[in-house]
Amino acid sequence: MQQPTPRPFPAGVPEVTRRGFLGALGVPAAAAALAAAGCAFDPTRAAQAAANANALPVAAGSPEEVAVDEDFWAQVAQAWTVDRSLVNLNNGGVSPSPGIVQAAVKRHMDYANSYPSALALLGSLQPQVEAVREKLAAAFGADPEELALTRNSSESLQICQLGLDLQRGDEVLASTQDYPRMITAFRQRERREGIVLKQVVLPVPAEDPAAVVALYEQAITPRTKLILMCHMINLTGQILPVKQVVAMARARGIPVIVDGAHALAHVDFQLRDLDCDYYGVSLHKWLAAPHGTGLLYVRREKIAGLWPLMAAGPALDHDIRKFEEIGTQPLALKLGIAEAVDFHVALGGARKAARLVHLRDLWARRLLAASDRVVLHTSLAPGLAGGLANVELRGVDTAKLQSWLWDKHRILVTAIVHPEFSGLRVTPQVYTTPGEIDRFCAAMEHVLAEGLPA
Questions:
Q1: Nearest CA to 298 among 288, 290, 306?
Q2: Is 254's pLDDT higher than 80?
């Protein structure tokens, strides 16, 4: 009896072979929509991508096996419209969106400007936001009534940082590696309200999760009322033991705000598994959603006790939508999230995470083998980091190295100059090719051999 073809996509996702992969993601429709709108998108390229899909076999196997299937990922890469004359290794800042996401935003924006705008925004498009909320909840393991659509992780996190009542002398606990904007928010509360910010110093890299939990625990005092922590640190890619810290803090009656800007749609996990009360994220990073979209998770029983950034009436006290009360806004961006979620689900979270780790290892292990002057500020141990990593060339100025890579080679990375370490943050995306990784490595090896030009 003939054996069935292995399913290349996770359970619960409709079976899609590579033959129909881009068609299922809507690339031909996206190409047509963008071409009709006069956008900078090449429909011929999309058609060629579909032809390539017909010629390639189905990708099957474990996430780790699919992660090294270059034929499969070459096909996936064709869903993007990126300029291949440069190498973008700063996708952790803002990732470009696939063509289908761009097309969706353009379609919704065109509708809002062709119909009386107030009627379009309030009468037609606003109800569709609820479908987006439900898609996000299904994909990332949450109740739709616990998810607010925001503009970015800064807005999501500051809703929590500024919306929880604190008294003069109350302490909040963070780390020295938390995102600067989040530290600024607490510093403003210090100046305005007299709270006290304390910061723990984490190891770089941190390879003992229990030791990390202990650092937070040891910094708690009777005045500690709130903890902020990263799920994945933006500087190094370090994954912190969120669930364990949340459990430790909850036993002491201390809420934890989790900065998930770099973790959601990058690491394979479900929000409910973290058991946290508050989680903020930018969707325009690893989900590759429209630029200017974010997500805030608030546990249902915590919604009433959290004030929104912009005032909402008492009728919304228990409603997650009170955090979306910001006035008129371009709903096309929020609605475009739907295509980004579908694209992510089609790839599969575990396969995407494995691919990002593979791309990281391609350059990190090659450079580590090239010279003992290469210092990696990111652990390569399983589960402690994903595709984001930080590398230093000892004896080379980090900021000058970043400038040289861009000016000379059009390779974009991020220079991290922190009081505790310095290095380049390298963040590929699933559209990144091994050839682009080679280009980066060759440039770095040249600097190791010859130094930077004067």
A1: 306
A2: yes
Please write the tens of the pLDDT for every residue from 258-271: 999 999 999 999 99
What residues are paired with 257 via a beta bridge?
A: 228, 278
DSSP string, 371-388: -TTEEE-S--STTS--S-
Instruction: Provide CATH 3.40.640.10 ranges for the chain.
Output: 110-342
Q: Which tokens is 1 given?
A: 């009896």
* 395 CB burial (10 A radius; 0-12, 13-18, 19+): exposed
Strands of the sheet with 196-200, listed across from one edge: 147-150, 294-298, 278-282, 256-259, 224-230, 171-175, 196-200
> C-alpha angle 248/250/255, rounded to 5°?
115
How far apart, in whole angstroms, are the C-alpha atoms of residue 146 and residue 371? 48
Where does the chain hold its CATH 3.90.1150.10 domain(s)?
A: 351-448
In the structure, what pLDDT confidence band is assigned to residue 45 with cuts at 50, 70 and 90? very low
Contact indicator for 140, 271 with CB cutoff of 8 Å: yes
pTM: 0.87
388/379 Cα distance (integer angstroms): 10
Chain segment 366-414, per-residue pLDDT in tens: 999 999 999 999 999 999 999 999 999 999 999 999 999 999 999 999 9
C-alpha to C-alpha distance for 306 and 129, rounded to whole angstroms: 22
Pick the CATH number of 110-342 from 2.60.120.10, 3.40.50.150, 3.30.70.1560, 3.40.640.10: 3.40.640.10
